[in-house]
């Protein structure tokens, strides 16, 4: 379609005018315009685990430890730590000269108050279970000492997600939902509901020379096609967590560069083992055989994903490859045979609840078609988010398709999800042997021994567990070509924005 | 006149009370509450955390108690605070209502400016080729979904006018009126197009109807030209059904604004309400729906007054 020739002068006049405006904007500050897909549900780092909150908060808050782009646990607000021989006591040496955004120096008292707030049942923190083994947290010669009831090797890595806030801010903690105060490279500036959250450079950041940008502006842009158009025309310069379809279009747009890393999260079919038909391990195994994970990777992610296993392949030190599990290779005939062995009437009618998310919806449709070839008759129930969560919490489902996040330690994937009675074990799964292994995995410090334990865990969960692991999508980031030195990491965190620069 | 205004105020009070009960119950009848939504479907919160969070948010009390608490607070001018952020909801609503009102007003203005002449011309040229073409165009306009139209315009505009800022934050009207209106243009067009189309069709049929009346025959027999007959005599009398439709369209425009705000990333009242429903942010939903209800009742009252201006007999009949 060609524009009318007579309009061209007007277009040029407008272009010149806009260019003038844009130039005035550039001269004032190096602020990175980010396109985020939704509003944060409040900014209290201890209460809201939602992705859009964490996206912003990771630039404002820091934990005692941090995770780098190679998924290694590195010092955060603690410069070093030691663990007692029995594994029941950790001592963290705090970084000196760290100041909160309100100007107060960070001390052990702030760390203790923050962690205790997460532990306090009155806070209702979703992170409380990470500290469930803690006996007490005390100060000793300026260090923070965490004493445990039972040993927990994953604790050090998990502290990465537990933000340190000033103790005095807790006196009026509801404020933290609106006005975060941390130690991070960027300070909270302004939140205009549904429009943007802006952060400005923390000039007193404890690491010299960082951050490099003058600020971050998280624009809230709910429509995927709008984010795409805004990236293509330069309104936005940074677009985190792009879906596979949009990234294909953006990769062709001039002036846009894209990067990818594997995602620690995975898509899944969850099964309720407390009622028929999935109380029968054979039916769960049949479901695994009926699935064709290659097709899911191609159909949902346009090939930009890897087949999932109980642990994602990116955790190279721990993961058992999916090819080692026979049920991960599609075999609908075997699925039917297993259903027959289980003694259920075929086709076996099941209902699958679907998380309202584009990836989950696409996945569910393919899963439905595949299961029907393997002796199932599937009804999909597309649910509104509140309803989905309510049913999920109450274990009011036969099966569901959704997406789960991950971590850097195997324990992040297994303990809270599969341990008997654990916080997100909505499947009501209970296996005494698995529980024993998971406890041992937490208590064992020897890496080779730990690896052996988690190999066993993966084996026991792969084919007959309450989750059929489907795919690990790739995590795409789109940037304008003048955005430099950002590194995406599989945890989805944007911590590397602190070293990012904007070229003129 | 005073009597009419008093009657309208009484109507408003009754409508608001009814709406308050309805909205209070309906939002609570949707499964899933704020505590559950807040903690999400992955992450590591268990049933115990949900119960504690509910207690903190005051969601464990009986519904009657919660309703009474809300009414009591409102009577004292306290509209409540957001469950999620603790910010007074009226601040959020106040901050957001401006851009939605502006969008609705601009769209309505554009719609009136274009639909009256379009409809009148269609009636004047009724049966001709240009009438048929216009009717096809307008039926397309009526059936076009605004989210699709919006996305189309964003991509199209970027290709045709690369310098035109279609997205990003809106500069305020007082600071930079030109950039402001430029940024509002596409959303307004998206909102207005379906309304222009349907109002033009209403105008056309009202005009054709009016043209069949006795007084038109009289006017023609006086020797007046067809142009004068159509645009002087028939036009004014076609405005009554048109204005009625306009009142309804103002409501339609508001619901359209929700979609358009979403597509163009405009922080308006529509998105605020949509988000509040998804988050089960009860005080915010309740208050914003009451505000919108108020606006509707007031607009309808204004339309009633307009009748009297257009047709003096309407007052007598009422």
Number of strands of chain B: 0
**Backbone shape of chain B:** globular
Number of DSSP E strands of chain A? 20
Strand content of chain A: 15-25%
Q: What does the largest sheet of chain B look like?
A: none
Count of individual helical segments of chain A: 14
Distance between the termini of chain B: 12 Å
Question: What's the average pLDDT of chain B?
Answer: 82
The major beta sheet of chain A can be summarized as:
8 strands, mixed
Quaternary assembly: heterodimer
- Whole-number mean pLDDT of chain A: 89
Low-confidence stretches of chain A: 1-28
Quickly count the helices of chain B.
13
Q: What is the CA-CA span between the terminal residues of chain A?
A: 32 Å
Q: Quickly give the structural class of chain B.
A: mainly alpha
Radius of gyration of chain B: 24 Å
Question: What portion of residues of chain B belong to β-strands?
Answer: under 5%
């Amino acid at each position: 379609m060609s524009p009318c020739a007579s309009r061209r002068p007007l277009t040029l006049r407008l272009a010149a005018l806009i260019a003038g405006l844009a130039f005035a904007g550039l001269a004032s500050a190096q602020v990175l315009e980010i396109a985020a897909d939704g509003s944060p549900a409040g900014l209290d780092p201890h209460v809201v685990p939602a992705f859009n909150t964490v996206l912003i908060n990771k630039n404002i808050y820091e934990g005692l430890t941090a995770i780098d782009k190679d998924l290694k646990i590195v010092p955060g607000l603690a410069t070093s730590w030691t663990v007692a021989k029995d594994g029941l006591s950790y001592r963290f040496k705090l970084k000196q000269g760290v100041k909160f955004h309100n100007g107060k120096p960070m001390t052990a008292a702030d760390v203790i108050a923050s962690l205790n707030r997460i532990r306090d049942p009155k806070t209702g923190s979703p992170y409380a279970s990470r500290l469930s083994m803690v006996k007490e947290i005390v100060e000793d010669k300026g260090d923070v000492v965490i004493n445990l009831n039972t040993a927990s090797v994953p604790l050090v890595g998990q502290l990465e997600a537990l933000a340190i806030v000033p103790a005095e801010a807790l006196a009026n903690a509801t404020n933290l939902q609106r006005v975060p105060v941390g130690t991070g490279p960027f300070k909270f500036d302004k939140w205009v509901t549904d429009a943007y959250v802006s952060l400005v450079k923390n000039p007193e950041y404890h690491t010299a020379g960082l951050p490099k940008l003058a600020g971050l502006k998280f624009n809230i842009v709910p429509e995927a096609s709008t984010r795409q158009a805004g990236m293509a025309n330069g309104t936005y310069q940074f677009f985190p967590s792009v879906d596979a379809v949009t990234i294909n279009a953006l990769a062709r747009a001039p002036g846009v560069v894209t990067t990818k890393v594997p995602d620690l999260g995975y898509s899944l079919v969850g099964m309720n083992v407390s009622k028929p038909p999935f109380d029968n391990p054979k039916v769960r195994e049949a479901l695994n055989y009926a699935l064709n994970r290659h097709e899911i990777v191609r159909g949902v992610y346009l090939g930009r994903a890897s087949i999932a296993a109980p642990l994602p392949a990116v955790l190279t030190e721990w993961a058992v490859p999916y090819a080692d599990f026979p049920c991960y290779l599609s075999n609908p005939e075997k699925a039917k045979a297993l259903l027959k062995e289980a003694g259920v009437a075929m086709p076996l009618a099941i209902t699958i609840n679907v998380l309202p998310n584009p990836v989950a919806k696409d996945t569910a449709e393919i899963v439905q078609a595949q299961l029907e070839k393997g002796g199932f008759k599937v009804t999909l129930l597309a649910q509104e988010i509140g309803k989905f969560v309510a049913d999920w919490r109450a274990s009011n489902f036969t099966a569901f398709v959704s997406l789960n996040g991950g971590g850097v330690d195997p324990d992040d994937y297994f303990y809270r999800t599969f341990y008997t009675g654990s916080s997100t074990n909505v499947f009501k799964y209970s296996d005494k042997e698995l529980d024993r292994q998971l406890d041992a995995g937490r208590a064992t410090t020897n890496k080779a021994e730990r690896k052996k334990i988690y190999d066993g865990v993966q084996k026991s969960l792969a084919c007959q567990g309450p989750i059929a692991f489907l795919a690990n999508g790739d995590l795409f980031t789109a940037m304008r070509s003048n955005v430099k030195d950002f590194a995406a990491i599989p945890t989805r965190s944007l911590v590397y924005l602190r070293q990012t620069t904007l070229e003129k | 006149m005073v009597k009419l205004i008093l009657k309208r105020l009484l109507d408003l009070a009754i409508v608001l009370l009814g709406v308050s009960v309805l909205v209070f119950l309906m939002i609570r009848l949707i499964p899933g509450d704020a505590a559950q939504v807040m903690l999400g479907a992955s992450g590591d919160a268990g049933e115990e955390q949900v119960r504690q969070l509910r207690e903190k948010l005051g969601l464990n009390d009986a519904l009657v108690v919660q309703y009474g608490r809300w009414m009591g607070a409102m009577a004292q001018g306290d509209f409540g605070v957001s469950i999620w952020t603790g910010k007074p909801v009226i601040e959020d609503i106040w901050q957001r209502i401006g851009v939605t009102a502006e969008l609705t007003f601009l769209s309505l203005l554009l719609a009136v400016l274009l639909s009256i002449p379009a409809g009148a011309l269609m009636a004047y040229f009724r049966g001709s080729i240009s009438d048929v073409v216009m009717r096809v165009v307008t039926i397309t306009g009526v059936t076009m979904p605004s989210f699709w139209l919006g996305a189309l315009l964003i991509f199209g505009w970027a290709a045709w006018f690369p310098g035109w800022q279609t997205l990003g934050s809106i500069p305020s009207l007082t600071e930079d009126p030109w950039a402001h209106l430029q940024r509002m243009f596409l959303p307004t067009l998206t909102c207005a197009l379906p309304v222009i189309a349907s109002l033009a069709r209403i105008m056309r049929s009202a005009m054709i109807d009016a043209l069949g009346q006795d007084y038109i025959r009289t006017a023609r027999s006086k020797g007046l030209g067809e142009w004068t007959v159509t645009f002087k005599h028939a036009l004014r009398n076609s405005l009554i059904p048109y204005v009625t439709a306009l009142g309804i369209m103002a409501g339609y425009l508001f619901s359209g604004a929700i979609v358009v705000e979403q597509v163009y990333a405009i922080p308006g009242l529509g998105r605020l309400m949509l988000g509040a429903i998804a988050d089960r942010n009860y005080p915010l939903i309740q208050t914003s729906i009451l505000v919108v209800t108020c606006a509707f009742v007031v607009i309808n009252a204004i339309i009633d007054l307009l009748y009297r201006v257009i047709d003096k007999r309407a007052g007598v009949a009422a």
